[in-house]
Amino acid sequence: MVKERVRILVVGGGYVGMYTALRLQRKLKRQLRRGDIEITVVSPDPYMTYQPFLPEAAAGSISPRHVVVPLRRVLPECRVVIGEVTAVDHAVRTAAVTTLATERHGRAAELFGYDELVLAPGSVSRTLPVPGLAEHAIGFKTVEEAIGLRNHVIEQMDIASSTRDPALRDAALTFVFVGGGYAGVEALGELQDMARYAARYYPNLRPEDMKWVLVEATGRVLPEVGPELGRHTVTQLRRRNIQVLLDTRLESCAGRVAVLSDGRRFPTRTVVWTAGVKPHPVLAATDLPLDPRGRLRCTAQLAVEGTEHAWAAGDAAAVPDVTATEPGATTAPNAQHALRQARVLGDNIVHTLRGEPLRTYSHRQLGAVASLGLHKGVAQVYGRRLTGRPAWLLHRAYHLSRVPTFNRKARVLAEWTLAGLFKREIVSLGSLEHPRAEFERAAGGKPPRRHPDPPKGSS
Known about the structure:
Layout: E1 6-11, H1 15-27, H2 29-34, E2 37-43, E3 47-49, H3 54-59, E4 68-70, H4 71-74, E5 79-89, E6 94-99, H5 100-104, E7 110-113, E8 116-119, E9 123-125, H6 133-136, E10 137-138, H7 143-162, H8 166-172, E11 174-178, H9 182-198, E12 211-215, H10 227-239, E13 242-245, E14 250-252, E15 257-260, E16 265-267, E17 270-273, E18 277-279, E19 296-297, E20 310-312, E21 317-318, H11 335-354, E22 367-373, E23 376-381, E24 384-387, H12 388-402, H13 406-421, H14 437-442
Parallel strand pairs: 1-2, 1-8, 2-5, 8-20, 10-17, 11-12, 11-17, 12-13, 19-21
Antiparallel strand pairs: 3-4, 5-6, 6-7, 9-18, 14-15, 15-16, 22-23, 23-24
Helix pairs in contact: 1-11, 7-8
Region (Disordered): 438-459
Organism: Streptomyces seoulensis
InterPro entries: FAD/NAD-bd_sf, FAD/NAD-binding_dom, NDH-2
């Protein structure tokens, strides 16, 4: 029997957080409705973002609202709190939570008590002390960033088509992406396709006028798909007039000039930073054990090592890979593992409550797929390598099968079908970022400018 009024706190509403809560909601439905168990999900956003679809959302192939899954809709038996956990004291089973209400009224963080803790806050962008990065770069982890980047690229084309200053035009049409992993390569591929298509509607712009640059600090891109497909990807990108600069670092982007470690300089108004992630900083504000990379030390049962009633998975957890041959290996921080870990984690919490043996998480990587733009991709599945349209179709089929809820699957499939029948919609909705600007102007205020001037001395 489950003891009376067990409080389960899930920190994070991403892959692991949402899928763990879904699993618990399904397995403990009767206890939840009787009030014997309470599940609270704390997330900074009221939705889960399916990140593999962000490049297509940025390119306009998928509507932004179909890339996200509303937490309250899929977790009706759970209490969803929009806020952030700032600290965890597991010794006394409490978590400090700030919400919009506490911030607005200037109150201290609320303390949430719990009996079982699931830490799944995910990761944040890993940045380096690069001059000008915070002021000028754009990230690519959220749907807001993806749509903001789309608007920004189209606005740069508007600037280039309307200026007579050759330096400004060149800077507006130069797009620098830093990081050769999934996010960087897929975002670059999709956005270049979109921009080349949009150029046909600008009489004074040609696709050849645009300069696309991929900067990668290591000697390969897309390490997940293997060295051979990584080399194939570099070849395909270069055939599309994309400069792929390997073993190269971004040294500075101050003054809207991207300065690289090999001495090259690119005046640019667009720097997209996708150079990796790091564990969420809340992990450092807990009394739980961390590994040298700042992740929670976990067992193969997804329990936090040496601690009772604390669980973790996904990007925030160092989970032993029991299928690996090398000692000390941990599972890769990707969606393929996160989705499966969430199911095991949810089951193990239920087993703990019922006094049953725990399951061990074990999954051998099936392969990897990546899109390089419309009708282009690479894939490695069960040892077989695919490229071009077959890989692109496999990429779409795989992620369509993994996106949560039948509702989302149907809407995404419908959008893909319509996109194949009709032309792309190329429009910037940058005004959405400042929805009150027009009213403020009418009321005599000073709304923010859509295109802030570059610093003096820059292009």
